Amino acid sequence: MTTKELIIQIKKKNSFLCIGLDVDLNKIPQHLLKLEDPIFEFNKAIIDATHHLCVAYKPNIAFYEAYGIKGWQALEKTIKYINKNHPEIFTIADAKRGDIGNTSTMYAKAFFEDLEFDSITIAPYMGKDSVEPFLAFKNKHTILLALTSNQGAFDFQTKQVEGKELYKQVLETSKTYTNSENLMYVVGATKAEYFTEIRKIIPNSFLLVPGVGAQGGNLQDVCKYGMSENVGLLINSSRGIIYASNNTDFAEAAAKNAKDLQQEMETILNK
Ligand SMILES: O=C(O)c1cc(=O)[nH]c(=O)n1[C@@H]1O[C@H](COP(=O)(O)O)[C@@H](O)[C@H]1O
C-alpha cells in the first residue's frame, strides 16, 4: 500500500487508529479455547467487529511465536484474512527486526513477500546496511524505532551523541538512507512532549504511536504536537481494545472501545 492510499483511508474513515492484535491465550475468552485455532478465531471476531473503525492492524509477532508452529499458522491465517477481506487496511508486522544485510533481506522476504504485510517495525541499532534491505521493497514501509514508549527508552535513546540525543541522530541519519521515502517511525504516546522536536526533523513522515490506553499515553497531547499536514499518525492500542471483555461479548466490547477512540480522532480531524 502506498502512503497516499493510507491517507485516503484515514480521511474516508475519519480514523488513524491502529488496533494491535497481541493475542494472549491467558486473556482471551475461555470458550474460544475449545476451537481448533483460538488465536485466529479471536482475531477474526475482532477484525469483523472493528475493521470500519481503524485503518491499520498490528499483530505483534512475539504473541504468535510464543505458541510455536500453531502461533505462526494463526498469524498467517490472520494476515491472509485481512488482505482478502479488507485490502484497504494497512498491516504492520511488529517484529522489531534488523541484522546484517543479507539476513535483513531474508526478514524482509518473510514479512513482505511470504506474509504480504505492508510494513514491519525495525530496530535501527545496526545502522544503514541493516535497514536498507527493507527499504528496497516498493510500496512497503519500514517503521524504525525512534523514541519508544517504555521507561528503558531513557537508557540510550535520549542520551547525547555528538551533542544530540541519539533518537535525533536516528531520525537524521535515516533520512540519508537509499529509499528513505519508505520510512516511518515509532514514537511512544507516553513521550508527547518530544513530538515538537521530532516534527522539526521529520515534518511529514508517518509515526506509529503505541502507548495510549494500557501504557497511559494521551491521544489529545500526541495529536496536538505530533499531527502533520497529512495527519501523519497511526495511533496504536492493543490491550485497551482487544481485552475490553473476556466474555462472549468480547468483539462488541472491543468495537465499543475502538469506536470511542475513533470518535475522539474524528473530532480532532474536523477541528
Ligand atoms: O513497535 C511498537 O509497536 C511498540 C513500540 C513502543 O515503543 N512501545 C510499544 O508498546 N510497542 C508495541 O505496541 C503495543 C502496545 O500494546 P498496548 O500497550 O497493549 O496498547 C505492543 O505490541 C508493543 O510491543
CATH topology: TIM Barrel
CATH architecture annotation name: Alpha-Beta Barrel
Main sheet specs: 8 strands, parallel, barrel
| Helix fraction by DSSP (H/I, runs of at least 4) | 40-55%
Number of strands: 10
Distance between the termini: 28 Å
Summarize model confidence as the mean pLDDT.
Answer: 97
CATH class: Alpha Beta
Could you name the CATH homologous superfamily? Aldolase class I
Radius of gyration, taken over Cα atoms and rounded to an integer in Å: 18 Å
Strand order across the largest sheet: 1-2-3-4-5-8-9-10
Bound molecules: orotidine-5'-monophosphate
Low-confidence stretches: none
How does the helix and strand content classify structurally?
alpha/beta
Number of domains: 1
- The dominant shape is globular
Count every helix, treating DSSP H or I runs of 4 or more residues as helices.
12
Order of helices and strands: HEHEHHEHEHEHEEHEHEHEHH
**How much of the residues is beta strand, in percent?**
15-25%
EC number: 4.1.1.23
InterPro entries: Aldolase_TIM, OMPdecase_type-2, OMPdeCOase_dom, RibuloseP-bd_barrel
Protein name: Orotidine 5'-phosphate decarboxylase
Family: Belongs to the OMP decarboxylase family. Type 2 subfamily.
